[in-house]
Structures are given as structure tokens and as C-alpha cells.
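Figure 2 data, in text form.
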Amino acid sequence: MSTPWLRIHDDAQDGTLVVCFPPTGAHGASFAGWRAALPAGTALALVAPPGRGSRMDEEPVTGMAAYADAVAAGLRTAARGRRLVLVGVSLGALLAYETCRRLLDADVPVARLCVVAGQTPGDFHGDGGELTADDARAFVLRTGLTDPELLADPDFEDVLLPPVLADLRLSGGYDGRHAPALPVRLRAVWATDDEHVPRRAVEKWAAWTTLDCVVTAVEGGHYVHQEAPGAVVAACLDEHVPTAGGPSRRTLLGAGVTAVAGAVLTPGTATAARGRAAAPAPRPFEGDPTDPLALAVAMIRQNTSNPGDGAVTRPHALLLQGVFEAAGVATEIVSTPKQDNVHFLARVPAARPGGKKPLLLLGHSDVVPATGDTWTVEPFAGLVKDGMLYGRGALDMKGVTAAFVAALLRHVKEGTRFDRDVVLWSDCDEEQGPHGVRWFLSEHPDKVDPGVVLTEGGWVLGQRDGKTPMIAALTCNDKRSLLLRLETASYATHTSKPFTGQAVTRLGQALERLGGWRAHIRPNALSRQYFTELARATADPALAAAVRAMLDARTEAVRDRAGDEVVRLSDTPELHNAMLRTTAAFTATSAGYYPSIVPGTATAEFRVAFLPGGDDPGRTVAELRLLAGDGATLRVVGNPGETEEQAIDRLRGYLSVPDSTADTDVFRAWQEAVRQTHPGIRASACQFEAVTSAVPFRERGVPVYGIYPFTVTRDMLRRMHGTDEHIDVAALRQGTETVYQLLGRLRAAP
């Protein structure tokens, strides 16, 4: 039974129905060799969109949603009583994926989704712009879709280019960055000689299924479905095709850490699309819950990227829920107004009720996106290579959460009873978004009432030899930042008439001046305490002398010179610089909107981060405004409706929040634990160089301590929120032991 959108061959009422989605500019004829290659009992359905093939005279569909809706509507009837397999080639892979989404939403089962030489939804950002026939012509020539001599024939071009252009507009307008992983088995086929979609791109499809993904290779180029139809049919339909490039998701999860260490697939869960079906549940965690590496890998594979308005964290929460409930620990998932943006709580009760207030282990499940810069590994694969665990969130902060969970569940497994409740909280909007810790404490004030909070913060650093532990820090306060926007203006004109003083060059000159700005060295009480310990801990006499000179300085000039020498001699100069002064970090620029127009305005944004007890924000803004010059406008970006003075006063209020006291049993337990697991190390309170979710608790007078329990290097610190983020596996295990020892010192008295 064919429909306008489907041409079904060898129609039968049962058996398997293979539905083929053509590549860019093509139609069902490109699958001409498939009928003879299909096994008995298998019917072939060819997708026939308007504007292509036999429907050439019809207006083409250039919207992904309309295309997939139409195919899914036809399949809801055609698929009855059949085993449904969707196969998409190149652009057809996206079309098959989106059609599969709609069928699953309508409770139509799909046995398998097969993608051939196709990029993933996440590779498309909806920024294709205005596409023309010249773009279609360039695409045809670049991909070898037809012979260049044929393209030179105007009549042939009139036939070929319109469907190509329609499909380019279809893919150019598609944004799949927030597309969900689907509960469907997936077969991804890589063409060995494909110059356009390499193996690595095909392997990324594993992130778009919550079930098994098998990646297999077939010899041929980008249009391998035409060159070798039998091989591609076998790769798509054979139940036992070996993988090319790594084990399937099931193999990875079942084999534990050994298999994980060599994996190259990305079995994370992509974020769910807004306004559509709920994010699917992940497969149960099958590793050792007391192994921080296995936990960290599983968490990294949940793609909880936060685009700015909050992340999709339900799959991550369900993963943690399964881990804790398998250990007999009560859990709770608390939803926020955003779909699938949730908080997760697990509570290990005290040996006796009515004692000390709970210890809260606070982590965040959301991570910054891994787009814009080129990674050498898949950011959501959880790959272990050369003793390092790579992935977005490995450092910030799924590695820390894994250490918290593994250490706590080890105590649970051993039957430890604590002198207070211990609560693990995975918060959803720490990076950005309106529904983080402050929202939760306002909406659910009775759910968590901690006596002490342990979250991300201080670092463990080694001596210059890279082997000997030097100093461990537990942070007791955070820096706070102010967003500033710089704008320059001139006038817009044609690019044929450039002039002196263009907005873009003015912006560059102002940024050059601001980029050279250095605030005075102003160590606050926490920084002084830390650097005092650093001078005692370091094996570098020159660094120790510079630190002492800085701390003993009686004038600003002497302190600045000594402080700059401390930064120069440090193995982690960016870290120590940020602990000693106000800093400026430049984050975005914008100018221009058309290639033949000199823009009339240009803007840049940067964050200025302040130490509590350091520079006054109002005076600093005034200093930066003077430095930017008369040709630039500097504005404070506050909350909606805030004036500049109100935003600065709000920041002053944050900076006045007192440091967390070190006079608690948890702080002392940390000092004892870190000295046990890192012999010879100095352990100090410290100022954190960034902001965390600690502030709402500190405002309530609750002591909050920040800890990254594993030893880090300058390279690891520089890759935080950057490319190839990673942590040392051995350090992760050692840091987990520190958390375990800390918790052990909170055992209930017999």
C-alpha cells in the first residue's frame, strides 16, 4: 500500500519493512540495487518527497519537521504488523532519525534505525543562512553527486539543482543540538573511502541511542549505498555484524572499566528537545558503584550540556538513582519548571536521629557545552587514554561527584553508621540557568537543612617534580564577578569605501588597552593563610622567598612586584594570579552582519572577578571605563531592570558574605584525611578563584567548603571548561580515598 510519500515494493502484510531515506538531492531511484539484495520476507519502502523524482513538479518541503511528520503519518498505517527498519543515507540519516522520533512518540515500534555515511543531529546548528543555486552547484561538485560535464548543461542543471537546494535548505535550517537519544537499536555504517563523513563522525551516532549501537565499516565512498548495495544491506540488517571502532554500548557497560578504557564510542544521552517527549531513561549502571572511574565514565556519557537556560539532567539523575537504590539508599528526584531539568537527592540516615545537622555533598550534573573548539577525543565518550579520563565534566565536576558517590557507597556497603545524615545532592543549573541551588532552597526550604556543605573548590598541587605532594586547599569563600559590555561605534558603509576609525578597529584598540590591565595584588585573609602554607610547603626556595616578600610588603608597589614574581615562579600561574587580585576574562565579541557592509557598531563582553575584601567593584568599573577611552562605551550588564549602581551594590553584598569558619569537625576531618592519603602535604583553608553554588548557603551562615580531592596540573586546570578536559585516573582514585577517609571520621560512636 503506497502513499504519496512512500513507494512500497514487494508489498506484504507481515515480515520486515525497510524504509529508505535518500541523500541530498536524490530520490528513491538511488536505492535501485536494494530490492535484489534484501532477504526473503522483506519489503522495501522508498521515501518520495515532493520536489524530487516523480514529484518534481510539486513544491519541495524544506522544513525537517514537516518532512518527518509526513513520512511518519504514512508509516503509522504501513507499519502495522511489520518489523520496521529505517535506513537513512547522508542527509537521509537525519530524516530517518526525526521520523523515528515521531513514530516512537506515537507508540509505533521501530526495530532498528540505520544511518549510512551520515552526520549526527548534534552536528547541525540551524545556522545555514540564505542558500542559493550557487551553493547547490558547489555542493554537487564537492561531493561528486554527478559528472561536472553534465552539470555544465543548463537543462540538466535545471533538473538537478532545485532538489539539491531544497535539501540544503532543509539541513541548513535544522538544529539538532538538543535532540534526544532514542530508545531504539542503532546501526551506524561508515564508508571506508568517504571523504565527507569520516569514521569518527559516524561513531558519534552512539550518543543518539539509549540502547545498543553497532558501528560497522563497508568499503566504498560517500554514496556506498549505490556502489555496494549488498554490503550495506547486510550491514544494516544482519544481526551479527562485527563492530568497527569499538564495542557496542551493551559490551561497554557489561565489561566494566577494562572495556571502558579502550572505548571510542560515545554512549551518552543527548539532551532532550524542548517541548517534546521526556528524556529517555539510561540503561542501568552495571559497574562497581564504589569504583569512581566507572561512575565518572557513566556520568560523562550523559550529555548534560547547559546551553544557558539549564540542562536536561533527568537521565543523569536516573542513573544516580539506580546506583543508590541498588545499595538500599533512599532517593528523590525534584523537577523544575523546565522539562527534564531536575535535582537529585540521596540520603544516608544517621545512626541515631536528632543529632548533628546533615553533611551535604553537593555536586552539579550540568556541564558547559563542548562546542566551538575542536577536541581530539569525543567529549561525551568518557575515554581513558594514557592514564587520563577525558570528557566534558571530567574535572568540573562529574569526577568530584563520582568520588563523593563511590566513597559514600563504600561506607554503605561496609555497614558504616554516621553521626549525622549524609546527603548527596546533584544540582542541575550550576553553570547557568534559573533553577539552581538558590531556586531549590527557595521553593523547597525543608528538603535540605545541612550543618556543613562540601562541594567543588580547592585544589591539590604537587611539587615541581610532578610526584611529590605539596599543598591541598579547602576553599572557604568564592570570588564573585561582574559582566561588562564594551561597545564602539562609527558609521556603516559599503566595504569599497573603508575609512579610519571603523567600529571593529576601535573595538580592537580598546580591547588591547583593557587586555593589558592588571589590578593590584591584594591577598585577602584566606589567600594570606594559603600562601603562608605554600611558602612552607614548596621545595622551590625562590618561590618561597617571593611569597614571603609579598606577604611582608608594606607598600603597594613592593607587594605588586613580589606578587608578580610569585605568579611567574608558580607551576600554576593562572590559578595563583586569580587568588591574589581582581581579574578580567574576555568571553565574546560581535560585529557585522553582511559581507559587503562595514558595521557601524562592534561589541565585546568580559567578566571581572573580585576577591572578597579586595577591590571595590564601583572603583574598578570607573578605572576600566577610563582605560577603554572616549571612543568606547563600557556598561555593566546586570539583572533585568537593574541600574548599574544596583548591580554593583548587589555584588558588594555578595562580597561581604563572611568566610566559612574552619572551626568544624568536617574541616578537621578533611585535614586528617588528606594528610593520610597524601603523606607530607600541607593542608590549608583557601580562597577559591571562581564562583560555585556555595553562596546561598554561606548567606544563611552554613559553613561551605570547596574540594577537588585529586591532584591537578597546570594543563588540567587550563582545560577546565576547555578542550580535551581530563583528570588523572590514579589521582581520582587517591582523591576518592581522601573523601572516604573524611567520611570515616564522622562515624557514630558505638
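Caption note: Residues 239-278 have pLDDT under 50 and may be disordered.
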